[in-house]
Amino acid sequence: MQLSIDLTGRDVLVTGTPAAARQAVRRYKAAGAVVHRLTSPHAAQGAPLPKGLFLVAAVEDGQPGWAGLLDRCRDAGIPVAAEPAAGAAGHVTLVGGGPGTSDLLTVAAVKALRDADVVFYDRLAPYQELPLLTSAELVDVGKKPGHHKVSQSDIEKLMVESALAGNNVVRLKGGDPYVFGRGGEEVAACVAAGVQVQVVSGVTSAISVPAAAGIPVTHREVSHMFTVVSGHAPLTEKEHHHLAGLGGTIVVLMGIGTLHQLAAGLRRAGMRPDMPMAVVERGYRPGQRTTIADLGTITSAAAGCSNPAVLVIGEVVRVAEANQQHAAAVADLDRLAASLLGS
């Protein structure tokens, strides 16, 4: 069971070497505590405890000899909390933030954020909740369609420079770093600079956002494959013909700007105009909205739609519609039954 304790103005003693305890110190200071330090068991021998000490945060720094101090604190009725040591400094972790809600962050993503010294984030990551997930320095490098607050090359430079300065760097991205996330380029930049780098996979919006709208990307006897396409640039005629001939489900990420060309190109390639299509805007965010039409009418139906959005083309859209209609019918029956029982 987790308990939240107000540490504002409370005296907290953090034990451990400077390198191992740096993140624990930052977390407790961010929580408003008055932080006292002991960096070695030798210095702790016979050292008086701070008056009014509320809590001891014992960082597992690998040094033997802390037991005497911790026993002394417990005997005095002072709680002792075990804290993990900070990881080795000077590396980069690319973290997939999922579709924009912290509920879909992986355990590994949460741990990487907790242990970060600096987080470079963009607008598709769950950045609003970062202060609850990390005490690291937060740097907005947000990119919007047609406008990059910080260029890709500059983001890579910032990451590398920060890691070389000794920081644990997290690059928090929406979705998965390797699904249209330019993660490969960022890994290459780190490798070229001799910086240790790892990748934490994220829940891609190609699957999760349709699911938020009740649309399965595959469904037995309906679709046994799905293709994920970037919507940032118009496709070629050859690509339209290839997609139209594949069958299955087509998922397009950030495709509002090229929706007209996509729909027209698929129709020219032979896809039937009544193929169902959905536009899911702002998946998992406030104002999530789904617009359903078909390939022949989607351009006008989605005239007011905007990115971030995921387009879904295929018969699986009808599966979602049928499920929604069934759920609505069941809800109507439940309300009718409740009304009859009440009367």
What's a quick, concise take on this entry?
With 343 residues, this protein is an alpha/beta fold. The protein has helices at 18-30, 41-44, 67-75, 107-114, 130-133, 152-164, 183-192, 205-212, 237-246, 259-268, 298-301, 316-342, and strands at residues 11-15, 34-38, 53-59, 80-83, 91-96, 118-121, 137-140, 143-144, 147-148, 168-173, 196-200, 226-230, 249-253, 276-281, 289-294, 309-313.
Secondary-structure map with pairings?
Elements: E1 11-15, H1 18-30, E2 34-38, H2 41-44, E3 53-59, H3 67-75, E4 80-83, E5 91-96, H4 107-114, E6 118-121, H5 130-133, E7 137-140, E8 143-144, E9 147-148, H6 152-164, E10 168-173, H7 183-192, E11 196-200, H8 205-212, E12 226-230, H9 237-246, E13 249-253, H10 259-268, E14 276-281, E15 289-294, H11 298-301, E16 309-313, H12 316-342
Parallel strand pairs: 1-2, 1-3, 3-4, 5-10, 5-11, 6-7, 6-10, 12-13
Antiparallel strand pairs: 8-9, 13-16, 14-15, 14-16
Helix pairs in contact: 6-7, 9-10
Q: Would you list the SSEs in sequence order as H and E?
A: EHEHEHEEHEHEEEHEHEHEHEHEEHEH
The residue-averaged pLDDT reads 90
Question: Count of helical segments?
Answer: 12
Strand content: 15-25%
The backbone outline, from C-alpha atoms, is elongated
| Rg calculated over all Cα atoms | 26 Å
* Tally of DSSP β-strands: 16
